Amino acid sequence: MKILILHGWGGSDAPHWQAELACETAKNYGTVSFPLLDNCHFPSRNRWIKQAKAVLEDFKPDTVVCHSLANTLWFWLCEEEMATVERLFMVSPPSLTTTESTIKTFFPCPLPDTLHAKKVQMIVSDNDPWISVKEASRIAKHYDIPLTVIEKAGHINADSGYGKWPLIEQLVMEKKQ
């Protein structure tokens, strides 16, 4: 199993669940790529697309795990020619119409025709400040993908208490519950 973990705005270093997932993957003899995307605190869509495309072409993951702005990055990547991955996990995507000035090059973001993944799972929180459950549901319905809504989990990041996150580890590493 080759897992690519793509972080959002500001990165996902420890104690973020993505850093924990990278460690768990390696501890279980999985192959993981968890690159720090260029200038993560002041990201540029074009630079991130270029860097992510290079990682995808070199690493050739079968599973991709996106958090926050990485989901928007994935939507932009899907507008380009790229290989299809086996599984895509989309956690806490921001609204497609986000107006935050620091990340303005990513928005507005269109929904691509395809997500270039055979199996997709979206996970959001019912109190995420960056996307409503209504918008997440509309995106999930558009692609006919399952949506898991977690109660009161904020942006599902370290600030909302998501360091070690057994659910995502089970899903990504296909552990039996």
Descriptive notes:
Strands 2-1-3-4-5-6 form a six-stranded parallel β-sheet, with helices on both faces. Helices cover 31% and strands 19% of the residues. It is globular and about 40 Å long. It has helices at residues 17-27, 45-59, 69-77, 133-143, 166-173, and strands at 2-6, 31-33, 63-67, 85-91, 117-125, 147-150. α2 crosses α3 (69-77). The chain has 177 residues and is of the alpha/beta class. It is built from five helices and six strands.
- Calculate the terminal CA-CA distance, rounded to whole Å: 19 Å
- Count of alpha and pi helical runs: 5
The largest sheet, given as strand count, sense and whether it forms a barrel, is: 6 strands, parallel
How many strands? Answer: 6
Structural class: alpha/beta
Strand order of the largest sheet: 2-1-3-4-5-6
Q: Beta fraction of the residues? A: 15-25%
Sequence-ordered SSE layout with sheet pairings:
Elements: E1 2-6, H1 17-27, E2 31-33, H2 45-59, E3 63-67, H3 69-77, E4 85-91, E5 117-125, H4 133-143, E6 147-150, H5 166-173
Parallel strand pairs: 1-2, 1-3, 3-4, 4-5, 5-6
Keywords, please?
alpha/beta, six-stranded parallel sheet, globular, 177 residues, 6 strands
Quick overview of this protein structure:
With 177 residues, the protein is of the alpha/beta class. It has helices spanning 17-27, 45-59, 69-77, 133-143, 166-173; strands at residues 2-6, 31-33, 63-67, 85-91, 117-125, 147-150.
